[in-house]
Design brief:
The chain is mainly α. It contains seven helices and two strands, in the order ααααββααα. The chain has a two-stranded antiparallel ribbon with strand order 1-2.
């Protein structure tokens, strides 16, 4: 079950359609994958209604506080509902809401619930910087104004992308330990963090 990996859920839907048609699998796995995809999409849709810009833009018409509180509420509901499949749908909605809150920062594409694109961008951005330096004999002084500007832009993207990947890894390690100890209640930590940040934002936005 993937609550934030929509590539996996979409692949699962395609494979289950074929399996269901061939009589090898029942409808339930197909229905679950479809429900998770729709839940994630619904969370992102809700975020689009609350936040009117792709880039971080505090104030204005963007309701970051409500989005964060809503994210926490969805995670708490995921803990409380009795059925595992229904809990996964609420967690997927929370992931979609969180993932859509900021999709661009400093020119970098930002995704907070998965890192395939992040790692791809780290590699391609680093490769562009390396090629510019290789063409100039690995000497910064040989770069012209345009090339220096390109390196500066790409370096700024890396300052967003690499810490994102690193913190994702650290969060995964922490989450694995917490899940071993607290089981489903490990979700209370991200719920508490997003709720706290959301309430603080709403308080200072007044």
């Amino acid at each position: 079950v993937f609550v934030s990996h929509m590539t996996g859920d979409t692949t699962s839907i395609g494979m289950h359609i074929e399996g269901y048609h061939a009589g090898r699998v029942e409808f339930f796995p197909l229905g679950l994958s479809t429900a998770l995809l729709c839940s994630f999409l619904g969370g992102a849709f809700l975020c689009g209604m609350l936040i009117d810009k792709n880039q971080v833009h505090f104030g204005g018409k963007s309701f970051y506080g409500i989005a964060l509180v809503g994210n926490a509420a969805l995670l708490i509901v995921a803990i409380l509902v009795p059925r595992h499949q229904l809990a996964a749908c609420f967690a997927a909605a929370a992931s979609g809401l969180q993932n859509a809150m900021c999709t661009s920062h400093f020119g970098a594409i930002v995704r907070t619930t998965h890192v395939t694109g992040t790692v791809t961008d780290i590699g391609s951005t680093s490769g562009r910087i390396a090629m510019i330096f290789l063409r100039k004999g690995l000497r910064f002084s040989n770069l012209n104004v345009v090339e220096r500007a390109e390196v500066a832009v790409d370096a700024r993207k890396l300052l967003v992308l690499f810490p994102m990947w690193l913190f994702y890894l650290c969060g995964t390690i922490l989450g694995a330990y917490l899940q071993t100890i607290f089981k489903i209640y490990a979700l209370l930590l991200p719920a508490f963090l997003t709720l706290s940040v959301g309430l603080v934002y709403m308080f200072f936005r007044q």
